[in-house]
Request: fold
Amino acid sequence: MTLHRVVVGLSGGVDSAVTAHLLKQQGHEVVGIFMKNWEDDDDSEYCSSNIDFVDAAAVADVLGIEIEHVNFAADYKDRVFAEFVREYQAGRTPNPDILCNAEIKFKSFLDHAMRLGAEKIATGHYARVRLNAATGRHELLKGLDASKDQSYFLHRLHQAQLAKTLFPVGELHKTEVRRIAQEIGLPNAKKKDSTGICFIGERPFREFLNRYIAKEPGPIKDPTGRTIGQHVGLSFYTLGQRQGLGIGGIKAQGAEMKELRARGLRGAGEHTPWFVARKDMVKNILWVVQGHDHPWLLSPQLQAQDASWCAGIPPAPGAYAAKTRYRQSDAACTLADAPQTAFALDFSQAQWAVTPGQSAVLYDGEVCLGGGVISAASALPE
Reply:
């Protein structure tokens, strides 16, 4: 094994801590960096970067490595957060974690690490990188722990980034990572996993968006055109959303009731849940449907743009698998001709609540090929 000077992104969590330990154990020269990416309300209960830095510094002390505190908040606000707000204002649902990885963790952080004389960087992501001897290209692979695989969030990494990146915990299951952390006495061995991006954290999401996006109330309508409520602004809802609609107890009527019962939803009416199905940005209408499997929520096809391919070139047309959201099993699909920046997917089984602004990520077995931002999806015929 070739030994390197490796700069590790220490987040304060257990995964990055064990990453640093494993690399040091292998004989690499390891340096830690803590990235501060958000400042606006960093002293609030929702954003824990000060606590996280204390945890990261304690880990560095136990491992006997240097740690540097680096502030990327300006880059984050310009290149990630500004896009996040623009997408919500346009009625789409972005995934800022994907953009953060591409723009901050594997660009700003990578550039900074190279200035420090690093040959490689490493993070605590559950993914793997492999050099394909036949093609000479680096491949992004799923993490071995299927329940923790994070390749979906990393699909925009390109060859230059993959060539410089190590993901040691991608070879392990989370239970093993926790065991190692406890065994070597890491102070954060039992620290709970982070569940959100820093600037939102655990806070009420609508309350956070209120600061940046003006409310434009409008009607909530069902498929018959009946107005059944009032929304606070289309930006505050996402396709497939069930909670927070404020329309509980509204009964389906007439043809809609017949359709619900035809789909096996006995007792359909006020107890059948409502879901956000469409957003009309021009007329400011939020369309909702009753029943999880309503045709409006099922899409056999999608189109994506702003594509990014790990190999630097689009994959050949053919049969693959794809995810249209992180917590989803791979879905069999067919890729049509894929120009460099856009593509279309046809699914063997219609996918639920395919959401513009989210990412469609393509897989060939365990290899993550890349993906793009969903721009449109077709619904099943009624």
